[in-house]
Amino acid sequence: MTSLIKPCEQHFINKFDSYRNGYNMTPGGDKNPMKTESVRLKLAETCSTDEHKAARATRRANDPREQARIAKIKATYARKKAERTASQ
After folding, report:
1. 47 Cβ contact list (under 8 Å, min separation 6)
2. Which of 43, 45, 50, 70 is the most exposed place for a label (fewest CB within 10 A)?
C-alpha cells in the first residue's frame, strides 16, 4: 500500500501543478515538509492569528461532525457530574 503513495502523490501534484503554482514545496513523495523547522514555524504563526482562529471556529461551528463530538463530550461531562453528585 505505501508503495503506491509516492507515485500517486507525484501524479496529483503534477496534474494540478501544485508544485510550481500551489501548495506543494516539492514535486512529491520525497519528504515530509512538516519536518522542516521553517515550515513548522510558519504554520504555527499562521494558526495563531485571530483571523485563522475565527475562521476555524466558524468552520467547526458549522460542521455536523464537530457538533456531534461536542454534544458527546457535554453529555459525558453531565453524566459524570451527576454520578459525583449522587455519590455524595
Report:
1. 53
2. 50
